[in-house]
Amino acid sequence: MRTGRRTAAAIGAAVAAAGMLAGCGGQVGDSGSADAQKLVLIPGVANEPFYISMQCGAEEEAKKLGFELDTQAPTEFDATEQTPIVTGVIANKPGAVLIAPTHATAMASPIKRAKDSGIKVIEVDTALDDTSVALSSVSSDNRKGGQLAAQTLSKLVGGKGSVLVINTKAGTSTTDLRAQGFEEELKNQAGLTSLGVQYNNNDAAQAASIVTATLAAHPDLVGIFATNLSSAEGAATGLRNAGKLDQVKLVGFDASPKQVEDLKAGTVQALIAQDPAAIGAKGVAQAAAAIENKPVTRNIQTDMIAITQADMDANAKYLYKSKC
Ligand code: T6T
């Protein structure tokens, strides 16, 4: 066990917290040996600008608060890849884990095991259906984001025509809420007809193929809502390849460098940008509070904004990074 970076106050707080929880029959298990000053961030997937920006915010906050932050990300956005990472982290007993669960139910048991071993669990971005596992969840208001996307798309298509949702993977809490919010808001947009939701498995190439197939089956398609980075990047490619940029308006969630290029080029008309750096920073602040046995906030919502070509420079702080 490393002790070098630990402050006496933090050790005291961790020991006191462990003692209190153990004393009241709580969740501590063998966490007496946990390295309370160590935090582990487990994003949904590696090398992706949304999670890189989250990591940047988390690292900055961890440094400010005197915690060490290690990031371990799966190579695919998939529960079978994320589970062994959680299992490995449990063995190392950090003070807290900040995790973006890749599936709302499939990740429940490994994350519960982390909690039961005494590690404080903070959800960042996505969440489990079971709200009893995490102490705090930090995310955008994803349902509202979907509603905002529907309002934005409706304006872009003049309030009428057939629209499609391209979603990433079923069971991803955030994007499922965005799709639900979009469909709900469509009920207020009488002129828009829903062509339903199709899944691209978090793969941009599959999103491009969905666009090609939908244009063949529904030549009247006028609008697409892509619920995340992969679906939006792929949908833009699909529309460009089909030569349908004039006919079909595209609103995409997220603001990766490629999505921003697509916005500049006019391939995408609006991006619903989140604030992943704030999600990471607030997640670390909650983890620190939990470790130090201070009050935590169960649900925290961060900013989100619809960006167009006209205001992208004014909103530069919302654009995602490829490195810190
Ligand atoms: O949209 C983000 C994130 O909020 C979502 O949970 C999964 O997809 C992204 O990481 C973008 O790819």
Based on the structure given, which CATH architecture of the largest domain is correct? Answer: 3-Layer(aba) Sandwich
Helical fraction: 40-55%
Secondary-structure element sequence? HEHEHEHEEHEHEHEHEHEHEE
Small molecules in complex = alpha-D-tagatopyranose
Computed CA radius of gyration, to the nearest angstrom = 21 Å
Under the CATH scheme, which class of the largest domain?
Alpha Beta
How many structural domains? 2
Rounded to the nearest angstrom, the distance between the terminal CA atoms is 29 Å
Kindly estimate the percentage of residues that lie in beta strands according to DSSP: 15-25%
The CATH superfamily of the largest domain is identified as Response regulator
Mean pLDDT: 91
Q: What is the number of helical segments per DSSP (H or I, 4+ residues)?
A: 10
CATH topology of the largest domain: Rossmann fold
Instruction: Describe the global form.
Output: elongated
| Main pleated sheet | 6 strands, parallel
Query: Unreliable runs, pLDDT <50, ≥5 residues?
Result: 1-33
Strand order of the largest sheet: 2-1-3-4-5-11
Question: How are the secondary structure elements laid out?
Answer:
Blueprint: H1 8-23, E1 35-42, H2 49-65, E2 68-71, H3 79-92, E3 94-99, H4 108-116, E4 120-124, E5 136-140, H5 142-156, E6 161-167, H6 173-186, E7 192-199, H7 204-217, E8 221-226, H8 229-242, E9 249-253, H9 257-265, E10 270-274, H10 276-291, E11 299-302, E12 304-307
Parallel strand pairs: 1-2, 1-3, 3-4, 4-5, 5-11, 6-7, 6-8, 8-9, 9-10
Antiparallel strand pairs: 10-12
Helix pairs in contact: 2-10, 3-4, 5-6, 7-8
Bound molecules: alpha-D-tagatopyranose.
Main location: other
GO molecular function: carbohydrate binding
Keywords: Signal
